[in-house]
Amino acid sequence: MFLSRVEINQFRRETMRALASPQIMHAAIMASFPPIDSAVSERVLWRVDKVASSMYILIQSSTKPDFTHIVEQYGWPSSEQKWVTLDMDRFLSSIKKGQKWRFRLRANPVHSVKSSDDDSRGRVYAHVTIEQQKKWLMSRVQKCGFSIVNLDDSDEEACIEIKHTDIIRFKRQNAQLTISAVTFEGILVIEDENKFISTIVNGIGRAKAYGCGLLTIARI
């Protein structure tokens, strides 16, 4: 597994267009990998992060990427801009139960509502309130192999910060899509290392092709 970060120039017209359409950004990211057998799918999770005044695309993949075209389209090509790619295998092998980490997750908190008893799947709606969004995350952490705690280990309700909520509307073919993307941050404790590693690899929730689902952790 690899984790890569490439800075983008958020003031370029091409970048603004891609940021407004996860479909365009997804296609550009997938073009960062060589063609593979149609029976094998490249496992890619990504999100756009803003740090101070800078903006980055963060990409997790099973194949090492080449972001030359990303730099040419959305970066600063004349500056011979580079990107950073880290091998995650050694890091993943060091994951152990009981470790405490700071986390960031950009996710698509939704729920299904059935219109009738015959409706097997129901219609998908976004969770719109902060309370609903936090409950959505808390309902998933156990099966994801971690718990969310306070930094001081107090018994108070676990602190989840919601940093951003974006409503993104874009077209895919002839369909109009709407995604509610929420950025969560907080402190987690690993409860089951195998489940947690699977969560890191596979992501959380829906809309993974459109910049949601990537969970990253950092030392406190």
Report on this structure.
The chain has 2 domains: 2-90, Crispr-associated protein, domain 1 (Alpha-Beta Plaits, 2-Layer Sandwich), CATH 3.30.70; 95-218, Crispr-associated protein, domain 2 (Alpha-Beta Plaits, 2-Layer Sandwich), CATH 3.30.70. Helix content is 22%, strand content 36%. It has helices spanning 13-20, 22-30, 68-74, 89-93, 130-138, 193-202, and strands at 2-8, 44-51, 54-61, 84-87, 100-107, 110-113, 123-126, 146-149, 160-172, 175-190, 215-218. The strands form 3 sheets. Strands 5, 8, 9, 10 and 11 form a 5-stranded antiparallel sheet that branches. A 4-stranded antiparallel sheet has the order 2-3-1-4. A hairpin with a 2-residue loop joins strand 2 (44-51) and strand 3. The chain is globular and about 50 Å long. The mean pLDDT is 90.
* CATH architecture descriptor of the largest domain: 2-Layer Sandwich
Q: CA-to-CA gap between the ends?
A: 23 Å
Cα shape: globular
Annotated CATH topology of the largest domain: Alpha-Beta Plaits
Q: Please, what is the CATH homologous superfamily of the largest domain?
A: Crispr-associated protein, domain 2
Largest sheet: 5 strands, antiparallel
What is the CATH top level name of the largest domain? Alpha Beta
**Number of helices in the DSSP assignment:** 6
Strand content: 35-45%
Rg (CA only): 18 Å
